[in-house]
Write a structure and sequence with these properties.
This protein folds into 2 domains: about 5-175, Rossmann fold; about 190-280, 2-Layer Sandwich (Pantoate--beta-alanine Ligase, Chain: A,domain 2), CATH 3.30.1300.10. Strand 8 and strand 9 (about 270-280) form a beta hairpin. The protein is built from 11 helices and 9 strands. The radius of gyration is 19 Å and the shape is globular. With about 290 residues, the chain is α/β, with parallel strands linked by helices. The strands form 2 sheets. It has a 6-stranded parallel β-sheet, with helices on both faces. Strands 7-8-9 form a 3-stranded antiparallel β-sheet, covered by helices on one side. The protein binds adenosine monophosphate. Adenosine monophosphate binds near residues 31, 39, 42, 149 and 152.
């Protein structure tokens, strides 16, 4: 394993980028570590599309509204480095908090409108403000042409695209499909906190999303949601939200299906908060 690719300060990463990034297309994959197949799929897409790929590993405290969740968030840097080194030639950026948030750090504020108040915005106050600030800061450091985000965090993708538009940032956001375990459970860093029984219980998420999809041709979004909601309640999980939303505005659909309509769900499996989502209507049809 070659640890020379791990940069822990802004200056060391910038030095390397200034040397290597001239005339190359730089791709960036921001992560909070505890890497799994989902992250690696983003990295592989970045490696395909770019000349140079930076992966950041930073557990950003400002996006956690629950301090317990922050404390319990898995941190597995050495394993992450080993996994990334098997994926290809990557610059790994694992900065300390003082590098991401220096004393002169200035918070940005972007009005998210309704994008920021629904779903995750409702249940995790301040979350997207933390996400936007850390992503903007990391963009400023890395200066990527392309940045790769997973659709596992469906609302996050919408928020980041909105921020990039509002601030006119010179970066293209590439959306990457959700990667799942063989069981159907969406891969997540939080899955390591689930027992084997809980991993089975957590399948209620994807089963519910599939149920909503099966109801598209027969029922309105409102009715489909109601049926799926009832079904989900039979599981041992505690539901936070189940929404059927417009793919860009994230507003709840009630009467009519639209292309790209998406079902989003968040629930607790024991103490572990999990999210998932599924496209219900393809963008091309209807
Ligand atoms: P995180 O480390 O959880 O902040 O995630 C870093 C990036 O990986 C985000 O863009 C996530 O959406 C993406 N990601 C996490 N899990 C998955 C997954 N199962 N499939 C696709 N992308 C994912």
């Amino acid at each position: 394993m070659d640890d020379s690719q791990v940069f822990t300060t802004v200056s060391s990463l910038r030095k390397q980028l200034d040397w290597r990034a001239k005339d190359s297309k730089v791709g960036f994959v921001p992560t909070m570590g505890a890497l799994h197949h989902g992250h690696i799929s983003l990295v592989k897409q970045a490696l395909k599309a770019c000349d140079l790929v930076v992966v950041s590993i930073f557990v950003n405290p400002t996006q956690f509204s629950n301090s317990e969740d922050l404390i319990k968030y898995p941190r597995t840097l050495q394993k992450d480095v080993d996994l990334l080194n098997t994926a290809g030639d990557i610059l790994i950026f694992a900065p300390g908090i003082e590098d991401v948030y220096p004393p002169n750090f200035e918070n940005i504020s972007v009005d998210l409108g309704d994008l920021g108040t629904v779903m995750e915005g409702q249940f995790r106050p301040g979350h997207f403000n933390g996400v936007m600030n850390v992503v903007k800061r990391l963009f400023d450091i890395v200066e990527p042409q392309l940045a790769f985000f997973g659709l596992k965090d469906f609302q996050q993708v919408a928020v980041i695209k909105h921020m990039v538009n509002e601030l006119k940032l010179p970066v293209k956001i590439v959306e990457c499909d959700i990667i799942r375990e063989a069981s159907g459970l969406a891969s997540s860093s939080r899955n390591v906190r689930l027992s084997e029984e809980q991993k089975v219980e957590a399948l209620a998420l994807i089963h519910t999303l599939h149920l909503v999809k099966a109801l598209v041709l027969t029922y309105s979004p409102k009715k489909a949601r109601k049926i799926a909601f009832k079904e989900f309640k039979k599981s041992g999980m505690k539901l936070e939200y189940l929404e059927i939303v417009h793919p860009y505005t994230l507003q709840s659909l009630s009467k009519k299906w639209v292309p790209g309509a998406n079902a989003c769900i968040a629930a607790y499996c024991g103490e572990v908060r999990l999210i998932d989502n599924l496209q219900l209507v393809t963008i091309e049809e209807k």
